[in-house]
Design brief:
Elements lengths: L1 E10 L3 H8 L2 H6 L4 E6 L6 E6 L10 E11 L3 E7 L3 E12 L2 E12 L4 H23 L1
Antiparallel strand pairs: 1-7, 2-3, 3-4, 4-5, 5-6, 6-7
């Protein structure tokens, strides 16, 4: 099973500030509650390792998810993929200018490889996206 969630935020933040936040993989990692730590693996910060702690019965250890920004179109779009033995994740963020602010369209797809992963994200992706919105607004 695959979980797909798309949410759009209307923000009173200029597009360049939204881009500065959303194009930083550290900001994205810090916004996800189950990412306990992350490691930036290259100078341009396009490869980041997430250390994920999922509260599901079959996963009793920290999972490493190797993420990579696969598409960057400054200042409007970033797409990343993350791969691990437990799940794959894809995230896309598209910024659209709006009167004095921005619209941010977010899409996340999680494909679980272990029972319980999809159920966890199906229940929690809305909260994770809300964390992203709050962190983004606090940054501006």
């Amino acid at each position: 099973m695959t979980v797909r969630v798309q949410r759009t935020f209307e923000l009173a933040i200029p597009p360049d500030q939204v881009w500065e936040f959303i194009s930083d993989p550290g900001n994205r990692a810090r916004s996800i509650s189950v990412v306990g730590e992350y490691t930036v693996n290259d100078a341009d910060a396009t490869h980041v390792t997430w250390h994920v702690e999922l509260p599901i019965p079959l996963v009793r250890r920290t999972i490493t998810v190797e993420t990579e920004d696969v598409t960057r179109r400054p200042p409007e779009y970033v797409k990343f993929v993350g791969r691990s033995k437990v799940m794959n994740v894809t995230g896309e963020h598209e910024i659209e200018p709006r009167d004095g602010g921005s619209r941010l369209v977010n899409e996340f797809v999680v494909e679980g490889k272990v029972p319980g992963v999809e159920t966890f994200f199906e229940r929690n992706l809305d909260d994770e996206l809300e964390n992203l919105r709050r962190n983004l607004e606090a940054s501006g």
